[in-house]
Amino acid sequence: MTRPPLPLAQINALSPEAFAEHFAGVLEHSPHYAEWVGAQRPFASVEDLAAAFAAAASADRPEAQLALIRAHPDLAGKAALAGEVTAESASEQASAGLGRLSSEEYAEFHRINAAYHARFNFPYVVCVRENTKETIFEGARRRLTHTPDEERRAALHEIGRIARLRVLDLVQATE
Ligand code: GUN
After folding, report:
1. Based on the domain organization, do 131 and 80 belong to the same domain?
2. pLDDT confidence tier of residue 100, bands split at 50, 70 and 90
3. Is residue 174 part of a domain?
4. Residues 31-59 pLDDT 10s
5. From atom 9 of ligand 1, which residue's Cα is the shortest distance away?
6. Nearest-angstrom CA–CA distance, 134 and 137
7. Backbone phi, psi, residue 71, to 5°
8. Where does the record place the Oxo-4-hydroxy-4-carboxy-5-ureidoimidazoline decarboxylase domain (predicted)?
9. Is residue 25 part of a domain?
C-alpha cells in the first residue's frame, strides 16, 4: 500500500485508466470493479466513493460475488505465511496481530479455515482492521451457523468494510 493518497478533486478528474489503476486493489484481485466505479464519477465525498465499491460488489451476480469472496486468502493461511498475498491483505492481517500468533492461535485459525471451506466452499472473510483476534474467532463460530446465502451476504458486507478502509487510505483526508 505504497500508493500515495490523492485529494478527491484530483481523483474526480483522473483519466479512467488512472482512476482504475489507483483503486485497482480496493477489491481483492478484482481490478475490474474500479473501472465500473470510475465511470460513476464525480463523487461528492470519500464515503460516497467507498460506498460505490460496496454497492458494485453487492449488485453483482451471485457467481461473481462468490469469485470475489474466493479471491481472498485465508487468514493466517499458507499464502499469508509465505508472503504470497497482496500488500493490502498482508498489512491488514498484520494490523490485527495475525503475523505473530502462538501455536494454539495458528491451530485455531487452521481449524476455522478448514471448517469454513468445508461448509461454504469459500474462505472466512472479515474486515480484520475492525477486529481483534478474539472477535475474529468469535465471528467465525457465529458465522459457521449461517446458511450459505446468509454467509455470502455476511462476507460481502465485510468486503464492503475492507474496501472502505482501503479507499480511505487512497484519498487524502480534508479538514
Ligand atoms: N480481511 C481483510 N483482508 C482479508 C484477507 O485478505 N483475507 C481474508 N480472508 N479476510 C480479510
Report:
1. yes
2. confident
3. no
4. 999 999 999 999 999 999 999 999 999 99
5. 125
6. 5
7. -75, -10
8. 12-167
9. yes
Total Cβ atoms within 10 A of residue 139:
17
Taking a C-beta distance cutoff of 8 angstroms, is the pair 119, 66 a contact? Answer: no
pLDDT tens-digit series, residues 112-138: 999 999 999 999 999 999 999 999 999
CATH assignment at residue 87:
1.10.3330.10
Catalytic sites, residue numbers: 72
Ligand 1 centroid from CA 127, angstroms: 6
Q: Are residues 48 and 122 in the same domain?
A: no
Q: Is 54 within a domain?
A: yes
Please name every residue paired with 6 in a beta bridge, in sequence order, or none if there are none.
171
Q: What is the 70 CA–ligand 1 centroid distance (Å)?
A: 10
Reported pTM: 0.94
How many structural domains comprise the chain? Answer: 2
Q: Is the CB of 165 under 6 A from ligand 1?
A: no
